[in-house]
Design a protein that fits this description.
The complex is a heterodimer of chains A (318) and B (292). With 318 residues, chain A is an alpha/beta fold. Chain A is 40% helix and 20% strand. A 7-stranded mixed β-sheet of chain A has the order 3-2-4-5-7-6-12, with helices on both faces. A 5-stranded mixed β-sheet of chain A has the order 9-11-10-13-14, with helices on both faces. Chain A has a two-stranded antiparallel ribbon with strand order 1-8. Chain B has 10 helices and 5 strands, in the order αααβααβαβααβαβα. Chain B is globular and about 55 Å long. Classes of the chains: A alpha/beta (318), B alpha/beta (292).
């Protein structure tokens, strides 16, 4: 598919949808506060800060304290959205996420901003590609990866209503709209079947969903009918949708902007081997990335329509 | 659970058992009795479980007794009432002292203490707020309590509420950098509704703090982070009470409570090896005799 570009009005930065929804909800609900680590700009919280200066708690460059402060605010009756660049929020404060948020059961919404390889050229220190693996292993923590602005808006609304420990990946890499329906764009724990097919299933998350749809269309031209499933609720996973995909299509390709080890591919494989073993291919980030833009790195790791098509054809022996 | 309906009712419900109008001698006498009960309970719990952190439990006991019986505005019949003071034990390994205090203060049945660290007990080796009423934060890994306490103090300010947050930190724990992130944040925000108490027993698991990773000059370190800092004898119940109730001066307060690890048991006091050593049956008898 075409490279996302600022000039293309049909591509969106999900951070805007995130901020707009958070502000709209905060106007109605005084429990909503934002906590950040000197990331007012990169978390797109400037407008929130203007409207609610007291409710934007910038703790400075201190992620461990940031997550603990979030837990303390929840203890005091607030619903904190704790925002920081994905790699630092999840890597630096992993024990705080485990203990202060998940083990305590405090309704903190951890917002991993600009996750995956959004900061492409800045290098592997700034890539959040381990987050799905790390956080999926933490009991009681929801892991949510919206694929487009509609899903982002719905996921933010869900997080406020659910009052549960949650991690939300808020994408910076521009994406097209993939949700068929704005009002029901996200259902916690549910997968979305975006394309139907009988020959195999492509299971994708986040930025990769539009690429999976492009691959589905390309495969159809080659006589292979692919089902395409969007997993925005990485945890809990919609086991039923995965089992149905395995039984009804007989082969699965997973694709994610994250390490395969422990990520979406691993999550899907866990369900498949227990319930309906079928051949699988897993596409994801393979180790620390070389220098390059996010788009360059997607191509480098085969995380594009061509890469998905190749994996699907190999899986089908065609 | 009865929910108070008026401000006056709420205020009465939250008041500590030892009234602020008591004279100091009477208060200290009553607090000393509570502290002795907590120490005896700690010895019995650890003796039964054959596990625990006896040294730190005993150094922190007088701090807990003063807070729970004379300072904290909390309600055992409604442990999560929004206007309650918050107490966080950052040194979560001293759970036996906390559980004993909570039981004696009415948050859980005293009989429950005999299940300490037994299979499926609510009383884990480190506290769990989802299982034990009165616990505000699950702690255990060090350096977690102060950031949570800062968040809770910010919450009180945001709501223009009156409740205060108290957090007890181990001294060895201050080697964790997260404490200093939180200390900087509290100083910057002038959180005068936050009190951090350092249980300064000068010993950590393996050796003296000053031989491991020097903490001194500890008071000036806190002061330089924007805190009002006082150093007191952490076993002087009147001094503890005064430190926790003195007027605020627009800054968070750090009370460096100079304590003795193992306080109250002659053969345990100030010995590194008693960080988590378990007394023999004979030693338990001796200890309880010293606490009679």
């Amino acid at each position: 598919m075409a490279a996302p570009s600022a000039a293309n009005p049909s591509l969106f930065d999900c951070r805007q949808a995130f901020a707009d929804t958070l502000i709209a909800l905060a106007k109605e609900d005084e429990r909503i506060v934002a906590v950040c680590n000197d990331s007012v700009g990169s978390s797109n919280l400037g407008e929130f800060q203007k409207l609610f200066p007291d409710r934007l708690i910038n703790v400075g460059i201190a992620e461990q304290n940031m997550v603990g402060v979030g837990a303390g605010l929840a203890n005091g009756g607030f619903i904190p959205f704790v925002c920081g660049a994905g790699p630092f929020l999840t890597g630096r404060a992993l024990e705080q996420i485990k203990v202060d948020v998940a083990y305590n059961g405090y309704p903190v919404v951890l917002c991993g901003m600009s996750p995956g390889m959004a900061y492409g050229e800045l290098g592997p220190t700034h890539h959040s590609i381990e987050d799905l693996s790390w956080l999926r292993a933490i009991d009681g923590l929801a892991v949510v990866v919206p694929a487009d602005p509609a899903q982002t808006r719905a996921a933010v609304r869900w997080a406020v209503a659910a009052e549960t420990p949650a991690y939300l990946r808020v994408g910076r890499t521009k994406v097209p709209s993939v949700s068929p329906d704005e009002t029901n764009a996200f259902a916690f724990g549910k997968a979305d079947r975006l394309r139907d097919g009988k020959d195999l299933t492509i299971v994708a998350t986040g930025v990769m969903v539009s690429r999976a749809l492009a691959a589905g269309a390309a495969l159809a031209d080659q006589g292979i009918q692919a089902r395409v499933i969007n997993i925005s609720s990485v945890k809990p996973l919609d086991d039923a949708a995965i089992i149905a995909a395995a039984r009804e299509t007989g082969a699965i390709v997973t694709v994610e902007e994250a390490m395969i080890e422990g990520g979406l591919g691993a999550a899907v494989a866990e369900v498949v081997v227990r319930n309906a073993p079928v051949p699988m291919r897993m596409l994801g980030v393979k180790g620390f990335a070389p220098t390059g833009s996010a788009e360059f790195l997607f191509d480098h790791f085969g995380l594009n329509s061509e890469g998905i098509v190749a994996a699907a054809r190999e899986l089908k022996g065609r | 659970m009865t929910v108070p309906t008026t401000d006056a009712e709420l205020s009465t419900k939250l008041a500590p058992p030892l009234s602020a109008t008591l004279d100091s001698t009477a208060r200290v006498d009553l607090l000393r009795k509570e502290a002795t009960r907590i120490r005896r309970s700690v010895i019995e719990m650890i003796g039964r479980a054959r596990m625990g952190h006896i040294g730190g439990d005993l150094s922190t006991t007088d701090i807990l007794a003063t807070l729970f019986f004379a300072v904290l505005r909390i309600d055992p019949s409604n442990p999560t009432t929004p206007e309650r003071d918050r107490f966080i034990l950052s040194k979560g390994h001293c759970a036996a002292a906390l559980y004993s205090t909570l039981a004696l203060r009415g948050f859980l049945p005293v009989e429950a203490l005999s299940t300490f660290m037994q299979p499926l007990s609510a009383l884990n080796g480190h506290p769990n707020r989802r299982k034990v009423p009165g616990v505000e934060a699950n702690t255990g890994p060090l350096g977690h309590g102060l950031p949570i306490a800062v968040g809770s103090a910010v919450a009180s300010k945001l709501k223009s509420s009156q409740w205060r947050t108290f957090v007890v930190l181990g001294d060895g724990e201050l080697q964790e950098g997260s404490n200093w992130e939180a200390a900087m944040c509290a100083g910057h925000r002038r959180l005068d509704n936050l009190v951090a108490i350092v249980d300064r027993n000068r010993l950590q698991q393996g050796a003296r703090t000053e031989d491991t990773n020097q903490l001194e000059p500890l008071a000036s370190r806190w002061t330089s982070f924007g805190w009002e800092t006082v150093e007191i004898d952490g076993h002087d119940l009147a001094a503890l009470y005064d430190a926790f109730t003195s007027p605020r001066i627009g800054k968070p307060k750090c009370v460096i409570a100079k304590t003795v690890k193992g306080k109250g048991i002659s053969f345990i006091e100030d010995r590194v090896e008693w960080h988590h050593k378990v007394p023999t049956v004979e030693q338990i008898e001796l200890a309880l005799k010293e606490l009679a």
